[in-house]
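Long-time lurker, finally posting.

We've been working with WD repeat and FYVE domain-containing protein 3 (Hyalella azteca) and I want a structural starting point before designing mutants. I don't trust myself to interpret raw outputs, so I'm hoping someone here can both generate the structure tokens and explain anything notable. Sequence follows.
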Amino acid sequence: MRKWWGAGGRPEDGLDGSQLLEQQHQQQRHLALGLMHLKKLFSEILHPAHPLSEDEREDKLYNMLPLFCKVFSNSSPTDLVEKFEDVLLFTQHVSKLMVTEIRRRASNQSTAAASCAIVRFLEMEGEEEGVDSIPSSGGWLLLNALNLLADGPPAIIEVMTVSSLPSTLVKCLYLFFDLPDPDSADSENANAESNLNKKSHSSPLHLPLDTSKTGGQQSALQSTASDASSCGAAIVPATTDRRLLLQKVFVQVMLRLCSHTGPAEELARKDDLSLLFSASTSGCPPHNCVWRRSAAEVLMAVSRHGLSQPVISYIHSKGCIALCVENMERTQDLSPLEIVEMLVAIFCFLKDSADCSQVLLDDFKSAQGYAFLVDFILRWIFVATPL
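Top reply, 14 upvotes:
Generated this for you. Predicted structure of WD repeat and FYVE domain-containing protein 3:
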């Protein structure tokens, strides 16, 4: 995917050395001023002149997001803590805001309606005039702010985990299996949901997301999501491109979170880790296969970084490996390539887990996983080389 630099190319194109150096100095001064203003805005939230209502507090947070993304889009992870002393409190506020907004859109809705409402909230929608071409979607800015924070040190990840952000995003990923094709979505339904794209001013609904439904490249991600995180998009992509861009940034947030042990343990405590196993091995419409591959990527991140003993015990007691084998056996409309992708994800997980414990390998054997693998190989060898 091409970078979203806009029609004019990069700002520094055509400058000589001295001009480029001066431009860099100006940018540094502007960022320093921006950081000072960011601290002032957050101080007004922490220490308001008068008590703030929930709506007023959320409005102030949303107003901070473009500046936060601009100041820290090209900073190192350590800059978050060194330059922004209140970053942990800021992370807490932003994480809770995302969780609240998602719950608002998922509560008392069917899985299809909830998935549409959430994705419309999170997608880039357009430009806000006069604000340096910042996308107008509050959800898109919120997601990009979380993406920058998720690249921070473990203390920031811990705050995001305590706010239930990892389990909330996994629920969203599972719901996204019910999304309609972005190129054929009904425009009237889109208009009906448009009010949810703006920030809701209703009281937050602290209800669990509906997860009752039963269906269910790292370097490339970093490149595209890094461009998106800068919030400097001068061109609004088409519907399919917006969905793809959302998927890349959404998954990068999850991958960054799951590169730590805490989020995996939170998923186990909230009984949401099983959703990743189910999503990685379930059938879905062709236009949503990207979300299944995303679930597999996140699952493999958990296997590389999050396999503590509580997590392994949860996977064993919940029968997650047996669930994967059962899903692959019973889903009739999966192509051989899809089955191979699922098997790769499961075997990568089993390989990583074997360094800690043999119990999940034993689970795979008990679930007749090896028998399924042999049957699958022989069946397709026969198809490929008929007598």
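Before you design anything, note these points.
Residues 1-9, 126-135, 186-235 have pLDDT under 50 and may be disordered.
Residues 30-261 form one domain.
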